Structures are given as structure tokens and as C-alpha cells.
Amino acid sequence: MADELSFTARVFTTPGDGAWHMVTLPEGLSDEIEARYAGPRRGFGAVRVVARIGGSTWGTSVFPSRARGAYVMGIKRAVREAEGIDEGTRVAVSLEIPDLR
Questions:
Q1: pLDDT in tens, 66-93
Q2: ∠ CA(25), CA(28), CA(30), 5° rounding?
Q3: 33 belongs to a structural domain
Q4: Residue 46: which domain range?
């Protein structure tokens, strides 16, 4: 069984060329992910998730950002184009975190 988590966040781009479009997970949700899914993980402390924004669903990861003090998640170009997302857009995100037990 997968855990489902939802939040709303504003899309930001990375400094420089702005190639990466991302959202920051709320601090409380980030704390919950850290507490429940700590342990062996992929590179950079990433936690695998299935993300949904609008009608788009895709597999990705959330990873901790020291600069933001929370987990962040990238939004791939195909999803941004399909959902009309750009920097500054406020999006509703649903995450499913697979049962890791």
C-alpha cells in the first residue's frame, strides 16, 4: 500500500539558466517524509514517489534541499507543457510514496 500526500506550492526555477522547474514541499510534510522514510535511499537522500499534477502522473523523486530546508521535486518539461505550468505558477501536487517495508 502506498502513502498519499498532497500539497500546493509555487513553481520556481533554479538560478542561472532556469532549466529546472521545481516545487518545495511544505516543511511539515518534509519532516514527515524524513521521519517515515529515513534509511537506505537513492543518491542525495532522494525518496522515490509517483507525482500527480492535474491530469499528469509520473515517477520521480523528492530530495532534501539544505538551501530550502525542505524536500524539493522537479517538474519535467512534458508535464509543464501538458499542464500549462511556468515559473510562479501555483500547483496542487499529489504524491504517492510506495510502501518501502
A1: 899 999 999 999 999 999 999 999 999 9
A2: 45
A3: yes
A4: 3-89
**How far, in Å, CA of 53 to CA of 61, rounded?**
14
CATH number at residue 79: 2.40.30.100
Is 100 inside a domain boundary? no
pTM over 0.85: yes
- Convert the pLDDT of each residue in 5-55 to its tens digit: 999 999 999 887 768 899 999 999 999 888 887 665 556 788 989 999 999
Listing DSSP states for 50-93 in one string gives: EEEETTEEEEEEEEEETTTTEEEEE--HHHHHHHT--TT-EEEE
